[in-house]
Amino acid sequence: MLVSQQQKLQDEIRSLAGRHGRTRAALVPILQELQERYASVSDFAMQVVADELGIHPAEVYGVVSFYAFLHHQPRGRFQIRLCQTISCDLAGKARVARQLENELGIRFGETTPDGRFSLEWASCLGMCDQGPALLVNDRVYTRVSPEQVHRIIDDCRKVFGAHAAQAAHAAQA
Amino acid sequence: MQPTSSKKTPLTFDTIAPGQGLAAALKKSRADIIGEVAASNLKGRGGAGFPTGTKWNLAAAAVVRDGGAKYVVCNADEGEPGTFKDRVLLLDYADLVFEGMTIAARAIGATKGILYLRGEYVYMRPHLEAVLARRRTDGQLGTDILGTAGFTFDIEIRMGAGAYVCGEETALIESLEGHRGEPRNRPPFPVNTGFLGQPTVVNNVETLASVSAILARGAAWFKAIGTEKSAGFKLFSVSGDCGAPGVYEFPLGISVAELLDKVGGAGAKAVQIGGASGTCVPAAEFGRRIAFEDVATGGSVIVFGQGRDMLHVAKNFMEFFVEESCGQCTPCRAGNAKLLEGIEMLERGACSSAYLQELLALCETMQLASKCGLGQSSPNAFVSIMTHFQDEILGRTAAVQRART
Asked: How many structural domains is chain B composed of?
């Protein structure tokens, strides 16, 4: 990581700690915001968070490694989480899973080489009456059939394209 | 592909005007509010069924330490497989939930409230924040609530981060405090030593909404519904092999057969009541009643049709528990893994009856020796499925296994 990037991250974490409070109870909210912005919580970020809250970095790592929604390793820009629990299983999640793997060319637990998509299992998403259900980041899809998988991924690609175009514009301007 | 409404029957909550319960509560003394809740015989809707009035009484009597505050926590970490009624309550009846928290705060003398919302429900957060903002503007949160001098209370939302075990109240508190979601030893109980060591009431979403209804309509009205030991109406999350899955309201004490009739699930092979940690009820026992005195539940009902392979069902549950065990205590960490291994042996047709008996003995150890409810209840489904469906489970050949999956 470049020194300037490190400095930026450090400033960001300081401001997060200022907002959430420099107490242990602020740890999870701070990590959640970092996760949202960077799609993972890096070693460096954990060290800075630990310094800000006055705890050992191992404590921070212990928390990051415990929760399914916090990641040490970078995840894709779009995190696809397919519910693997019983009701979605009865509703046919296995075929949706297979098709997700086919479309993305990765297995569950992996991220595409371009860093756009990662594929994960989720425990019950609370959509049991409308399964199979999956989450793409914050968005819920229900009654997903194998033939719809392609469209869901395509929607993400379009969003990604738009973002990339905006970023390019901003860089030029 | 987009979620649709899950409500399948009109709910009693539709008939409770927001604000009514809180207004009634503010006319009462603190002891009378708790008295009303206790008289209603309301028991925790999360599934454990602890009497809400008793919990509040203990928290009201507990002493705040070092100039801190008491807390009311709404457990919206709805993670039990097959449960989604809290999603409906939070989206359509958020006012009743927040009102219940405010009534609880008044009753026990709390000044701070926290809604612990599961990470998977993050898309609801903007809506819930908007409801909270409106309640602040309307004087239903903040200082001197609705003109009651000295009654100060506000609610913040904290997000879970994808851990089923955090639905256990002490793990939830650990998580709020910035730790791994590992359950604590009890006692001390949260009503004495909860969030930041202060007296804390942790109630389920539906329990709190029910409190608003009870204060609005009176304890006698609520108590007249249901059975003697299981008072009131209950929301059920119905999924699986039935005609109309969704959220239903029934009085507690309804039989499994009656329920199946109403959801288009007649002729089922078995029903899982209470989610992965609940019990699998075979067709022969559909006369049993869903109530705390018979088959207890947080509301999850999963219907299995005639063609379903019960070993596959058991495997799905055990995979869930192996994934979600926090790993802190050995009976749960090692026990669940051992049971899953046993299921894989059964799939291969390589498990003797003697070994199956050993696994069932292990289940008993887990039920007795695990530290929290997760490990104590994770063998339930395994035990009930192995007891009722041994016939289709033992002696599998490769051909049988292929045909069934």
From this structure: 3
The residue segments making up the domain with residue A130 are: 78-172
- Give tens-digit pLDDT for B39-58: 999 999 998 899 999 999 99
Torsion of CA B125, A152, A82, B122, to 10 degrees: -10
Whether residue B129 contacts residue B290, with contact meaning beta carbons closer than 8 Å, is answered with: no
Determine the residue of chain B that is closest to A81 in CA distance. B120
Tell if the CB–CB gap between B240 and A127 is shorter than 8 Å. no
Q: Kindly report, residue by residue over A63-94, the tens digit of the pLDDT.
A: 999 999 999 998 899 999 999 999 999 999 99
Spatial distance between the Cα atoms of B100 and A145, rounded to a whole number of angstroms: 39
Q: Which amino acid is at B55?
A: K
* Minimum Cα–Cα distance from A70: chain B residue: B161
Provide, as residue numbers in chain B, all residues whose Cβ is less than 8 Å from the Cβ of A87. 81-82, 239-240, 245, 302
Q: What ipTM does this complex have?
A: 0.93
Within 10 angstroms of residue A172's Cβ, the number of other Cβ atoms is 6
Q: pLDDT at position A169, please? A: 53
Rounded to two decimals, what is the model's pTM? 0.95
Q: How many domains does chain A have?
A: 2
End-to-end CA, chain B: 26
